């Protein structure tokens, strides 16, 4: 299963069995984490086979049970723009979530309160922050599909170009938005917008007002790339 296929199979799961991760699953995830840390300047850490991989921290939303494995999405803030870290961990974290699904695992995003006061589950440096994490393992029951914003709200067309409305947008743009519709988001609000600019090739992605909006933006940019194909468009600077 590749990441595009995993994206279509992924549904949030919050209750897990005690079945451990296999050696192959741990090695594959560890290798992916090392690559993403190097590429994005992060300090993502894999916690596995723990009694409580949440480290005793309360969760921002949702009840979780049987969490023995967790990917801690950790990095240092940009002094000028702290939201940059949120977007980076959103993008890199979703790569790992989809990788886990491709390995036959279930996942869910989680935001933890008091992540710096955990019970030794991960290492958090003095200048570091953990905006979110991903719990993973073997689900006690299957996840369910979630509702999404309409495509026309997630993908909009800039006026003045050769494309008049969403229905006339290039197929790759609509494929990208359909992939965004499958993405997880805090409280299901999807506080993002993708605008096809007037050259019909450049896409502007932006976070709107909402909970964990820049984490969602990073997640959704990955989904858009997987759906649209990176050779078909360019991100606006």
From TrEMBL:
SUPFAM superfamilies associated with the record: FMN-dependent nitroreductase-like
Ranges in coiled-coil conformation: none
CDD domains the UniProt entry points to: Nitro_FMN_reductase (cd02062)
Domain Putative nitroreductase TM1586 positions: 2-228
Highest taxon above the source species: Bacteria
Protein name: Nitroreductase
Organism of this sequence: Bifidobacterium colobi
């Amino acid at each position: 299963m590749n990441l595009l296929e995993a994206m279509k199979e992924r549904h949030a799961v919050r209750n897990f069995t005690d079945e451990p991760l296999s050696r192959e699953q741990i090695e594959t995830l560890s290798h992916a984490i090392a690559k993403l840390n190097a590429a994005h300047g992060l300090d993502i850490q894999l916690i596995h086979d723990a009694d409580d991989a949440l480290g005793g921290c309360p969760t921002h939303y949702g009840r979780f049970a049987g969490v023995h494995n967790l990917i801690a999405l950790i990095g240092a803030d940009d002094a000028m723009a702290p939201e940059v870290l949120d977007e980076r961990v959103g993008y890199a974290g979703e790569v790992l979530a989809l990788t886990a699904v491709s390995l036959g695992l279930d996942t869910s995003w989680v935001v933890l309160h008091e992540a710096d006061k955990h019970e030794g589950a991960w290492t958090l440096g003095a200048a570091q922050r953990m905006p979110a994490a991903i719990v993973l393992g073997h689900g006690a029951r299957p996840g369910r599909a979630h509702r999404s914003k309409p495509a026309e709200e997630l993908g909009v067309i800039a006026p003045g170009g050769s494309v008049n409305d969403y229905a006339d947008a290039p197929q790759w743009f609509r494929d990208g938005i359909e992939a965004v519709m499958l993405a997880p988001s805090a409280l299901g609000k999807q506080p993002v917008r993708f605008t096809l600019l007037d050259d019909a090739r450049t896409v502007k992605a932006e976070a709107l007002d909402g909970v964990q909006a820049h984490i969602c933006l990073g997640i959704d940019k990955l989904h858009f790339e997987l759906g649209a194909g990176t050779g078909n468009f360019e991100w606006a600077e």
